[in-house]
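Lab notebook, bench 4. We co-purified these components, and the gel suggests they stay together. Before we commit to crystallization screens, I want a quick structural picture of the whole thing.
Request: model the full complex, all chains together.
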Amino acid sequence: MSTYILRRLLTMIPTLIGVSLIVFFSVRMVPGDIVLVLSGTRSDITDEQRAQLRRNLGLDDPAAVQYVKWAGDVLQGDLGKSLKTQRSIVGDIKARLPVTIELAILAALVGLLIGIPAGIVAALRHGTRTELAAQGVALFGLSVPDFWLGTMMLLVASRYFGWYPGAQYVSFFQDPGKNLSIFILPAIAVGVSLSASLMRMTRSALLDVMGSGYIVTARSKGLREAVVLRRHAFRNALIPIITVIGLQLGYLLGGVVIVETVFNLPGVGRYTVQAIADRDYPVIQATILMITLIVLLISLAVDLLYAYVDPRIKYGSAGH
Amino acid sequence: MMTRYLDETLFRAIQREQLSRRRLLRNAGVAGGLALGSAPLLSMGKTVAQDGTPSPEVSPTAGGTLRLGFEANPDDLNPFTMTSLASILVTEQIYDTLFVFDQNLASQPNLCTGFEAPDDTTYVFRLEESASFSDGTPVTAEDVKFTLDGYRDPDIGARSWASVIDSVEAVDEKTVQLNLAAPFAPIIGYLSWHYNPILSKAFYEANDGNLQALTLGSGPFILEEFIPDQTLRFVRNPGYWQEGLPLLDEMEWVILPDDQGRVAALRGGEIQSADFIDIQPVESFFDNPDWTVHQVSTLTHATTYINCAEGPLADVRVRQALSYAIDRDEILQTAALGYGQVSGYIPTPEKFWAVPVDELPTYHHDIDKARSLMAEAGYANGFDITLRASPQYILDIANAQILQQQLRAIDVNVTIEQMEWGSLLDAWVNKEFEMLNILLLGLPDPDGYTRGRYHSTSTSNRNQLFDPDLDALMDLARSTVDVEQRQALYTEIQLKLDDLTPNLFHYVIDSWLVWDSRYQGVTPLPNASAPYMKRVWIEGE
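Here is the predicted assembly.
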């Protein structure tokens, strides 16, 4: 097992190098740069002033030279400074990652709490109106964008109930109550669309399993339906569900940009998208690299979970 | 000092009565030529005193806190290097300028008591005796010299306007003399602009020029805390050199980029003030006594750039034909729902300088004239052209679509090419366009709207317009110090520009300020600055 993990970790290195190269050179191919974006349409800023700012920021060096310098810094754990704010990117990410992780976890919880029971009910009540209703709700969850749902909840809460979750982020450790009140609406907004795909996956996986021979055997042994479901059916249906959760978690940790913007949450997604709009190259490079690493780690964790859930799956030095 | 005027009649009417929005629209209609928003500021739902001083029966009380929803994160707080509007709006509260624009956009003395000009290239300023930085040290002639030298240094401030300064002398502790290389009338405008504040030399040197993280100014507020993308907390500068100001103890600017997020925060009582460009989020605050909505006519002007160097548009007759063919009022009514004013080369709120648009010949919508000009130029059957625009500002796209429709009347077939914002800016700066839509920000002096954009030697001449007569006129206007003569020259320049039609200017937009009605002393300016913050106070505090 540990050799397997080590091997998987080693194969991440070429992936990360590849991603860093693609990101580094592709962002520079996009027209416009930070100096242009920051000075915007102010026609009093002359081209000489812009050239001066570019020199100050080191943007006039050849791209290859910039890459080597940057890669060297990254290897020493230095992700550099934002061109826009001159702040340390490591510091910025440290401040933002907890926000994104908390939103991802809470949204995943909301998704699981709604999606899995609804999926089970839909599968057990196969062919009834309950299933139809559950599927209808799932379709709604899938179709409605999370940012629309978030905006609506925010406007209804503030307009009709005079309640606003707070415009300023407070960490969980500073004030748990305030922190949760800030996160509740965005977590529901993101969680509802997550729950829809979870519900559909749970339902189809369970339906698939419920028809198999060992469930018939379990039933004919005289086991109660709840035990059949818990011990035999659900456990076997878990593999595809875990896959979906893993994929979604990877997506959530990349940041839910518009929801972060609507609720003014200083997360990684907003940071990255703003950096792209601003052509803040070091920030784009750092965040994409970090998100890549997170997705790779999650997919490793998901693979390891498979082995835990289904003992038939074993990872060894000879592969599986 | 030059004097400019407001539309006094409408203004007084608003002061006297509480005009509802609908009534205001009706009145504006009745007044004929008096378009909605023709006064720099109109306030709805509540009366607001003209100069920010409260009406005599209620005296302002000091104290209290303001929480304000701020749209963008300031990227750079170092006045030497900052470029974005968000940074300028923040530093405006911390620093002071030598002069300051009043509501009519006329320069008024601020850190100095005024100026004397012994000749066209010499300006002498006497600093306010009491002027001091927030650490108690006085603002001296040395500080002014240090700041202006920094602005003109191409490696530090690199301000193009400051390159005209030949030398700055600290005559004595409170007297500064500016020696210009050539007569440059816009100088006072630039010194009034919130982009060019006065810095403390001692503080800059003690901190190795690190003004990004550390600030010390002579402004009404001290920046106590800045959490990027979250909040800026200002506290009152207790030793502010202007007696009795500021009135608020504390201001917190919460960074809320999303329009709906700011609406929700206002409704939820989280913030008491927010600005909007779009009318839609503001509508729910109309006709509600708890909220005061200020409709502010801005200097932000919507325009279509024309490449004058290539293709059919290199022919001046074709450009004039386009100008005759478009109906600017329809563009304003349709794209911006009428919230703005049709504008020429100098934005309409610059009433002292701007030639009224009905005096610009090509502004008279005339399809027959346009057709005959097209035929004269050999394009009787029209041509195809590409117009670039970015959905970053929805107005740019809306303007493009209406323009596309209107130009069909003279068989000019416009293809709209939508571009991402940074890419559009790149195309604009590098002059890679046939036509290009953009919203331009206001500038401190008519020189910027004309010479800065259209002089043969200006690197910001994006249209590639080269006209020696126009160059000579603009050079003369720049060096003419007498205000009346200058005004006459700018009239001539605007007529000349209308004749050359390097741009199709459309309109200036209105912006919207929503304030909790308990907050008094809000007197918006067309140039997106907020020097009135120090006079804001809370009724019943």
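The two ends of chain B are 38 Å apart (CA to CA). Worth comparing against the SEC data before the next meeting. DSSP finds 15 helices and 20 strands in chain B.
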